Amino acid sequence: MKRLFSGALLTMVAASSMLVACSSNNTATPSTTPGGASTAPSAAPQEKVKLTMGSWRTEDSEAYAKIIAEFKKTNPNIDIEFKPIKNTEYNTALNTGLQSGNGPDIIHLRPYAAGAALADAGYLEPLTSVKGMDVFSKDTLLAATGTDGKVYGVPTVFSSTQVFYNKKIFQKYNLTEPKTWDELLKTADTLKKNKVTPFAFGSKEGWILSLTQGTLAPSVYGTDFIKKILAGEANFKSPEYVSSIKMLKDMTPYFPDNYVGIGMDDMRNMFVSEQAAMMVMGDWEYAVMKKTNPDLQMDVFPVPPMKADGKATVTTWVDGSFSVNAKSAHKAEALKFMEFLTTKEFGALAVNELQKPSTIPGVAAKDPLVAKIAKNADTISTPYASVVYFNAGNPTTKSTLENSIQGMYLNKLTPEQVTEEVQKSADTWFKPKK
């Protein structure tokens, strides 16, 4: 799919072959009846096993209940308990559990560098024996590949970010989907004049800031600029990147009052309650918002370009894979679930219950908006650079960007100082491929 990109942060090589998973062969010695006739033994009932599944997707509990129920149709002896943790607390809780020798049997793996770090630390079971892994492209598998070249997770869904908008509010003020950046700003001006908050936005949670920058920045520096950074032909202090940070600062008149204290829950509430007309956000929020307000009339549009010859874009990446805890007491059963995740049955559930593009080829969405999101991701995508390429370092360059933008919105840093901090972080670990 066009949304995927090779040449990720870590030099990874997908496993050269995928072997069929081994299964236990339970046999018994035939018994003999009193009359001497041999009878075939009755199959011994399989022992019930309960697995735990960790995740940061608290919003997806109902969807995973349906996914697990589908899995149990062919694996009735395996129970799976979906135990999500708030997304901002998940990484810490997972690392603490794994370091103590515990953790869930099935792990929802953060993509790219974060997942590779857990694999490199020995916490994950390689999936080289899982049947069906050959359905994924090498680029897709990069999201869950360790530095040893082995694959440690089954990629489940793609994510993309774009601009959600309220169709009813747009119609009320005779607004249409903007095709240029100037049109977007004029739209925001019209909304503000009519006392409608243009963008549901907050800088309280850092991940929102890197996501917003990653979504909007290609409109400023184009789709090829990040390739220049990767090749050493530019860096984070280059004028193009500085301009992308200035753009974030320039948008503050269109944000809610007291936006520095607003987090994701507040942003969502503003949008679904129709207090705000637009929101830069990932496609995963669609299902959540539709459930929160079934009457909400929403749609999406790609980020329009600033330059006349520019292209509209959405930002994409593989958002999470499922892996197996290397210390699970029930690895064989957990690996059966990994195999299920490679099937079109799961792919159909993912696209229609999670309302996100599936990683399984040939699976179409029933929902027209999900289909639109998937089409944009296939045709006009650019990679989420902070996740795919710059999520390493200690602290990571991604988190440095987030903290620095927060500082900018608190008027403690200038856009130039933000980019200086980001470059300092990258210099500690990133080596361009010249």
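The above is record 1. Record 2 follows with the same two-line structure.
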Amino acid sequence: MRTHHLKELVESIKKTEEMISLHKDDELTLVITQYEALKAKQVAEFIDELAKPPFQSVESFSLINLIINKYYPTINSDRVKQKDLRELALTI
């Protein structure tokens, strides 16, 4: 059941990404912002599901890394300060 939900979620993320690409050149930045927010919500749900049992494993964390790298290849430095991330990494 959860595997089916995760597959549907991945398909939804793909469709949302397609809509973002479709509207990328539009003047309607509100539309893009809404699709970006939807994608973030979908990706967060995917990550949450993989990070808890019964999926929680080294393999599931690899899938989490894969989806982040695929849909967020670069981090917007306005949103996340690189210094803060480095400090957090040092605590790990």
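The two ends are 34 Å apart (CA to CA).
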